[in-house]
Amino acid sequence: MHTHTSPAAATAATPTGNMVELFGATRTYGTGAARIHALRDVAIGFPAGTWTAVMGPSGSGKSTLLHCAAGLDRVTSGQVILAGEDITRAPEVTLTRLRRGTVGFVFQNFNLVASLTAEQNVALPLKLARRRPSRKDVRAALAQVGLEDRLRHRPREMSGGQQQRVAIARAMAARPAVLFADEPTGALDSGSARTVLGLMRDMVESSGQCVVMVTHDPVVAAAADAVVFLRDGRIVDRLVRPSAPQVADRLARLEG
Amino acid sequence: MPGLSLSTLRDRWRLFTGAILTVALGVALVQSSLVVLMSTGEPEIPAGASGREAEHIREGYVGAATLLGMVVPLALFLAVFIVGSTFAFTVAQRRRELALLRMLGGSRPQLVGLLLAEAVLLGLVGSAFGAVLAAPATWAQSSLLVRLGFLPDGFTAVWSFAVLPWSFGFGVAVAVAGVLTAAWRAARTHPLDALRDAPSAARVMTVGRWLVGLSALACAAPLVAAGQSADLLGALLIAMAVSILGAVGLSRLSPLVVPLTGRLVGLVLRTSPLGELAQANLRDGVRRSASTAAPLIVLVALLVGLTGALGSLARATGEDLKRNTAADLVVESSGADAARIAALPGVAVASPQTPLEVSVTAQHREEGRSWRRTHHSGIVAVDPAAYGRTHRPKPRRGSLADLRGRTIAVGPGLAGEGLRVGSAVTARIGDRRVKLRIVALMRETLENNSETFLVPRDLIPPALTADTRTETLVQVAPGTDPRAVADRVRAAGIGEVRTLAAWARGRVDAQQRGNVGILAVLMGMSGLYAAVAVVNAIVIAGAERRAEFAVARVTGLTRSQVVRTALVESAAVAFIGLALGGLVAAAALAGFRDGPGGVRILAVPWGLIGWLVVSTFVITTVANLLTTLAATRPVPVSLVAARE
């Protein structure tokens, strides 16, 4: 089992214990009549060692929240703190450094480099960060997601579930303090989805990593520690350790 | 990073085939040129060759070096251009992958490094192919140079391993130079692009394109205006500059200009539903249509512009020659027979000009510079009085009447070279050395290689010129039919008779042969490059459109309708590229519309234009047909949902 605790996870949280914090975060797109408020004055913290699911109807701003929190997009006003650093106006160099060590990403469409093998894909972020990944570590990460026999396969030779497990192994190998996941099970069958959720739970429990996940599936959201609900760019509700029917019920009322 | 570059290159080699081929062609050309150049470094003058022959051989070698000197930069320009557009295209295509690298912690310098490493690998692979391809290229080039008369028969290029570092250096440098803009662009890729579907995020008209395109056109516009009032040489230089500037400008602005022109073409297309779809695609796939049209613009502008300019110059030279020569017939005969022409009935004036095997050493002085040179070719013996009556331009200085005894006149070929009336030159006639005084200086004409020195015939022993091929300009007496005189010359068995027009044409053609050869080499090369670029753009774009074609078929189009739409689109793009290139060429040639004295000298190369149009449509249609057929082979449903 993976027992190493990322030093970032242990030290970089804010005094409140949050790995990621947003204060008065507002994000607008376009100008004039075409102006869209994707986020309106959102304040939220994501503590270390927890897994939070972000839910809401289409267009509620959940992906924008994830992008802004991860430093992939910038808030129009407000403040974003990631692993103890203010990234609201941070230059590209800072964001690149954070992407190398502090944050990891898992997305619906896997986002593997097509020309690289599973092994090479897992080692890629470490190489980009100029850390020399040992073959043993890379293999261990792939073994953890149950893909020790797929080391030399390229993405197109693997199923969707296998590709997503490679993506998770890639995120795990860099031991990020925060893992951002956008519909990580969206393209998977239910069996593969269960495996992936189990792996994410492991990261939270054993390494104390913080997971922020966007999903529209109540069953997937129920695997998280807490669920926050967005509508029209605002946080409108929050559930702690809910069951899938509770989440579904709340979501149905939001959309109704 | 090199590992990633290597795996990208291996995995997506199809994207890079065009660029590799381009580098290989460029390297082959440069290497063969270098091998030929190294072998021509020391002209080998056969023992026993006369001064004139030696000078001829040396001039040929210089001409060959000049030709190679023109070919190599053009190869460089085209190779960088095509590698650049290929990389720009692949960067646009790999936007998601590059964005993913950014998201995984790749820095901007790392992305630049990745593309540079790819370029170096590509350059090395291309150079290796090119080095092999250079062997047949060297052979072809030497034999062409021999056939064009630049190099002596039996010339063989000597292979040297010393050229290999140059070849590989050239290949890698071209690839790296081509990738620079694309790498800069790739570094701007935003990580979020990895998650976006529509490639709309990338702006096609970058600041660099605006800047280069507009400034090139801004430079070309006043030149076109100046061309209207320039003399012939000015018009020629302006035509060359306008062709290049216009081609660069319009090809850089092609994402803007091509869709605009597409609207005009659209007026015709909109009459059928397929045409309407094709027109919409044309407008929507800006990058795709621009990448196909840009090489065509460059090709047509350069080829038609340069060929037209040189052709017009040749026509002007011919007109100039006819206007300056007061003769009806030109007879070619031996020196001894030429003497009989004046006595024939109906001949008013006969002016024989005999090329001499003599050398003239003269001291040139010009703007404080002074140099000594020995001339071997273009020295002719003339009858001064007859020469004066058959050549309309009067001497600029001095008088032909003084051309008697130990005197000499400077011909049109050396008129601007700093020789003065009254100074002395040393001539070597047979075994004698004689000092001759310059008594006249003729005016410059448009002709290259025209006579350098005129020597009075009485100075030359008749035995020396008796067997030499002599041209005699003949003026017939008033009221006499030149054809009757021509018949009499033939009847007397003196030699070959031509009309003035035929003679002028032949003389200009002989002088143009070198130009035409150079042009043929340049045209073949540019054509090949443009074909590579166009096919490359079509193949890359076609592969990218699989999902789009699938959607069209799910919407209700048959496979053949999809293919036909794509063909209509490609034909429209080809037409636009040709038309815009033609526009540049027309602007370049505008200065030749009115020649001196109102003579029409503009020579539009219709044959070349026909070739370009036919081969463009054939190549684009075939390439598009094959890629579209390949892209529509899978069942559409399997592609509609698929990504990447």
TrEMBL record, chain A:
Lineage: superkingdom: Bacteria
Signal sequence range: none
Protein name: ABC transporter ATP-binding protein
SUPFAM superfamilies: P-loop containing nucleoside triphosphate hydrolases (SSF52540)
Classification via PANTHER family: ABC TRANSPORTER RELATED (PTHR24220:SF685), IMPORT ATP-BINDING PROTEIN (PTHR24220)
InterPro entries named among the record's database cross-references: AAA+_ATPase (IPR003593), ABC_transporter-like_ATP-bd (IPR003439), ABC_transporter-like_CS (IPR017871), ABC_transpr_LolD-like (IPR015854), MacB-like_ATP-bd (IPR017911), P-loop_NTPase (IPR027417)
Domain ABC transporter, residue spans: 20-251
UniProt GO molecular function: ATP binding; ATP hydrolysis activity; transmembrane transporter activity
Pfam families from the UniProt entry: ABC_tran (PF00005)
Keywords, comma-separated and alphabetical: ATP-binding, Nucleotide-binding, Transport
GO cellular component: membrane protein complex; plasma membrane
From TrEMBL, chain B:
Keywords of the record: Cell membrane, Membrane, Transmembrane, Transmembrane helix
UniProt membrane topology term: Multi-pass membrane protein
Localisation per UniProt entry: Cell membrane
Membrane among keywords: yes
Secretion signal, residue range per the UniProt entry: none
Top-rank taxon, per record: Bacteria
Residue stretches spanning the membrane: 15-41, 61-90, 111-137, 157-186, 207-226, 232-253, 293-314, 516-541, 562-592, 604-626
Domain ABC3 transporter permease C-terminal positions: 74-191, 521-630
Database matches in Pfam families: FtsX
Entry-linked InterPro entries: ABC3_permease_C, Lipoprotein-release_system
Coiled-coil ranges per UniProt: none
GO CC entries: plasma membrane protein complex
Record flagged with keyword Transmembrane: yes
Family the UniProt entry places it in: Belongs to the ABC-4 integral membrane protein family. LolC/E subfamily.
Protein name per its UniProtKB record: ABC transporter permease
Protein source organism: Actinomadura rudentiformis
Lineage: Bacteria, Bacillati, Actinomycetota, Actinomycetes, Streptosporangiales
